[in-house]
Each structure stands twice: as structure tokens, then as C-alpha cells.
Amino acid sequence: MSRTPLYQFVDTDTTKLEAALVDAYEAIVGHSAQPSSPERIFIAWVASIILQERVYLNHAGNQNIPSRAEGANLDALGELFYQHTRPAATSSTVTMRFNISEAQTSAVLIPKGTRVSNGQNMFWATVEDRHIAAGQTHGDVTAECMTAGTAGNGYLAGQIATIVDVFDYYTSCTNLTESGGGSDAPTDDEFYEQLRQSEDNYSTAGPKGGYIAKAKAVSNDIADVLPNSPTPGEVRIYVLMEDGTIAGQEVKNAVLAACNADETRPLTDHVLVEDPETVEYDIDTTYYLNRSGPSAADVQSEVNAAVDAYVKWQAGKLGRDINPSELTRRMMVNGVKRVVIRSPVYTELRSGNVATDASGRVALADLTDTVPQVGKLRGRTVTSGGYEDE
After folding, report:
1. Domain count, the chain
2. Inter-CA distances, 271 with 20, 180, 264, 267, 343, Å
3. Could you tell me if residue 215 is left (phi over 0), alpha (psi between -120 and 50 degrees) or otherwise beta?
4. Same domain, residue pair 344 and 365
5. Residues 112-131: pLDDT tens digits?
6. Residues 252 and 288 in one domain
7. Is the pLDDT of residue 2 over 60?
């Protein structure tokens, strides 16, 4: 949901304001104030001060409305909602494995705060003390990125393998999972949307919106969440990230922890976090130019940007149909005469929303129908067909 435009509480039309002041002055003194006269110059100065105050009044009024407030003002209005505060940036986490030279007769401590890195400029620290048990040669422990935000996401298994704080008998370390779960602090638009969605948490009956709000609160990089219940007592939650990718294991673990807490779900709900199904598509298109338009290089740049935006849009929501008409619309930038789309073809994707019959039972022939789908780009070919005469 986009935030509403600013509301004008008081008029800020300079011409109308100055005319009203001139009329009032002339009514008081009994003669006209001529243009460029000292009186008119003074009135214009007064009008500018009043106008500035009206601008401030409009700004102050809008800052008292959550859908229009910004920054610290929006933060202050958070107390009106279930979710009171703007989430801080969160750090990515990863599961690290530490190896020792040989099994010992007593446990070996991996101290809390033991730092590891990717060998460059990113560092993670273990979140708790962990002992490698007697007779064992390795121990696994969660580590948290020391730089909050998305910078610590996306390091694949094996890419974090440099230790900073060596402990007794240490030989090597590596990350077993891809790092993930880090998110930047939400923008004003994102925070306002979180505030609105948090109102669903006032229900204690396990509403769909409640699960969505809890899941999205895990990371500001979560774009879409779909909870459904294909069988009685079972809740499946599907998560899609802002970049159109399926959530990694670290994010899914965090979503499950948030949505499976006793104070969140009804006792009868069994909560699972599952992957949506990806449906691959190709882009194969040719665009033709108007001779009277911008240069071919400028048009090519705009067309490529339009295709990039389409790919992001297509992957931005679970169950969004693969729609070539949307691609055509976006590619019709200034200078493009027409567009020929060979691929993709229109493809309906499953939304994952569960239909029920009159008795409230799931009305589906196949439970796979409850798994939402999301489009994923496989290949891309965008060519110029050159100029065409009108």
C-alpha cells in the first residue's frame, strides 16, 4: 500500500493571500495601495511571513497523521499501534563449525564472541559459549554478523573460513549454512505498512493477517508472506524476499520461531515454513524505434531498465501471473514504436489461497494446489529491430 499524499490544511496560494491583505489594508486606511509603493512592499513582506507559517502548519498537521508522518514523527505515532517501535537493522546469522586437532579427554570451550570472517572486511561473532564434547573433534554454533543490515547476507557455505580469535586446539572453521536474516532498518513507507499490519496481532485466534505481520517483522527484506491451512490444524507459511528469491534457511528458521511461539499461535496449530514453487520463464523480445525519437543508445538504455523493472515486478509477489502485457507496457518508453513479445506467454500461477466449501472444509482435489508459485527469470534476449517509418 502506498502512503497517502500530503493534505493541505490551510491555503498557501501567495496571490490570494497578498490580495486579501491588500483589501484589508485599503479598508482600514481608506485609500488604495499602489503597486511598488512602500505599503505594497511591506504587505508583500508580511504575506511571505504568513505564507511560511502556513507551510509550517500544513507540515505539522501532516506529521500528526501516521500515513503522512516522517522520521521521528512517525516513530512517535507508533504508540498508537500494536507494534510500537521501528525495528532496528538486524544482523545476519550463520551456523559455524569449528574443528580441533584431535579429540580431547575433556570438553574444549569455543568462547562466546569468538570472531570469524570471510577473509576480507566482514566479521561474525559466536552468540554463546559452546563446548566441543570430550571425544569429539568439532562443534557447531551460531554466529552473528558484527555489521547490522543486509551486508552480511548471501555468503555461501564455505565462504566464512577465517578465524580471528583462536582458542585451544583450534585447526579450522567454516560456515555450514548460507548467511541470512540480516535486514536494514525499515524506511518510513515500510514502517507504516508494518504498523498497519501489526493491528492483526490484537486477535488471539491465529488470523491470517497475524501470521503475516509476525513473519514480516522478522526481516525488512521480506516482500510477501502467504499463510494457509491445507488441512485442519496445520498452517503452512510461504516467504518471498524483496529480490524475488525464496527465503534462505536462516530466514525460514527465524520466521518459524516468530510464528510458532506459544503467545502467537493457537495451541491446535502446527506451523511449518515451506518454499513456494518457482515457475521459470524466458524473455525474448524485439522493439522497433521511431526515427523522430531519442537516440538508439538512449532508447536501449531505457528499454533495458524497463525490462529490469518488469523482472523485479514479476518476482515481487507470490501467485502473480506471468504477464507479457505488463512487459509490453513497460517497454513502450519514449522512442519505441512497437514491441514484439515472443516469450513469455501469459501463464496463470497458483496463489496458494485455500478455498473452502460450504461446511468450511478445504475444497481442493490436490493439496499441491495450496503451494503458491512465483515467476523466476531463466533467460533474457532483448534486441532492437531498428527504425520503422510511420
Report:
1. 4
2. 66, 21, 11, 10, 38
3. alpha
4. yes
5. 999 999 999 999 999 999 99
6. no
7. no
